[in-house]
Each structure stands twice: as C-alpha cells, then as structure tokens.
Amino acid sequence: MEALAGQEQIEYQTKIMPNDNLFIMVSHANQDAVEMYNPVNLNRGRNLSVANLDIFGYLVDSEGNINMPQLGEIHVAGLTKAEAIQLLQEKISKDVEDPIVNIRFLNYKISVIGEVSRPGVYTVTDERVSVPQAIALAGDLTIFGKRQDVQLIRIENGEKKFYTIDLTSPEIFFSPNYYLRQNDILYVSPNKTKAGSSTYNQYVPLTLSITSLAITIISFITRNR
User: Fold this and answer.
1) Hey, how many other C-beta atoms are within 10 angstroms of the C-beta on 150?
2) Which regions of the chain does DSSP assign to beta strands (E)?
3) CA–CA distance from 23 to each of 122, 126, 168 (Å)?
4) Which of 62, 67, 105, 112 yields a CA-CA distance of 20 to 30 A from 201?
5) Is the pTM here over 0.90, yes or no?
6) Backbone phi, then psi, for 219, in 5-degree steps?
C-alpha cells in the first residue's frame, strides 16, 4: 500500500506515567558496588519470575516520582524508558563509574472488550502494541463486530478520553492512537444485526412462557369438557 501523500507513520515511544510499576535493576562489573541500588540481590534473585517481580517494583506516585535507595525522590513521569535509564545512570555515576541500568514495566496491560473472540486483559511484554495487534491478541472481531466503530478509552491527565477508530481506513496507520498506552481499553461495538437480535431475544423467554401457559389452559379445558 502506498503511503498517503504528506503523511508518515507515527513512531511512538512508551512514556512513564503515574501508577506505573517499574522494575529497576542496576548492574556493574563489581556488583557489590551497586547492590545498594537494587531491590533484590542479582545472585540471590536468579529464580525470580515475572509473576513475583511486582513486589520489587517502584510504583510511580501521583506526582510522577519514585523513591530509590541512596538516590531519594526522582521525577520520572513523562520520560521514555531510555530517558529514565539515562537519568538514573547519571545520578548513580556520581558514586559508581559506568553503571548499567535496566528498566522494565511490570504493569503494561491493555483491555479488549466487546465483540471480539477472546475479550480480556492482556499483558504486553514488549511494552508497545498497536491497535491491530491488540485486536489480534483478542482473536479478531466476531461476525457481529463493527470495524468502523472501535472505541479507545484512555486516561489522560486524570480524565477519561474517548476516541473512535475505523479499522477499515488506512488513516489508522497515521493516527496518534495507532499505538496503545498502558491501561488503554478497546471496545468493539456491535453491529445492527447483533443489537437488533439482542433487543429481540430479551422478549423470547416471556413469549415462550405466555405461549406455554396458554397451551396448558387450553389442554385443561379440552380434557374437562
């Protein structure tokens, strides 16, 4: 497909946000020199799994800060992971030469609900996912899903924002919403067929009950004539 004239695909880098949980590990040729900066000793923590890393994460508070041993309060909200790594390396370098800092998001999750095959909450391990990739994780739309009306629900500056995405339009590849952010929600709306059948089906049990009652009364009257 040729790129639309004058448009370039959006390059998105995940930025740290309040309530993010960050696993930060500092390593060095002399590991004892940086042990004070780590929530868990590297040698003793080799059996750690992703599931139990949460308790060792640094939670970004509502002001966008984390509090690390020896370094104190550090403002990280709004930074990309690369920027946060550089900031921490600069601070630690005042005491230790050439430290290596690694950061991992422990709570990078998205939700896909509505007319998809496998609605649910999905953990994104590579910390970046596009709208089509998220839809694929959920098993694609059902036959009742409305591809022109996918709602993106996102928290921005403490407020809920709603964006409409048309999966059939090439414009999606150039949209600032092409890549999802942590805790985004995608809702796939039902088409008219599903909406209509839903309205109809709610009356079916009542209709069947009334019909059954009428047949019972007629049978009773017939038998007692």
Assistant:
1) 25
2) 21-27, 58-59, 65-68, 72-75, 100-105, 109-114, 120-123, 129-130, 145-156, 159-165, 179-180, 185-190
3) 19, 14, 38
4) 112
5) no
6) -65, -40
For residues 130 and 186, the answer to whether their CB atoms sit within 8 Å is no
- Domain 109-198: give its CATH superfamily: Outer membrane lipoprotein wza domain like (3.10.560.10)
Domain ranges of the chain: 21-105, 109-198
pLDDT of 1 strictly over 50: no
The encoded tokens of residue 198 equal 């839903």
Q: What is the pLDDT of residues 17-71, one digit of tens each?
A: 999 999 999 999 888 888 888 877 655 555 566 566 777 889 999 999 999 988 9
**CA dihedral for 106, 111, 112, 117, sign (positive or negative):** positive
Q: Which CATH class is domain 21-105?
A: alpha beta
Residue 52's nearest CA partner among 69, 65, 35, 39 is 39
Same fold, 21-105 and 109-198: no
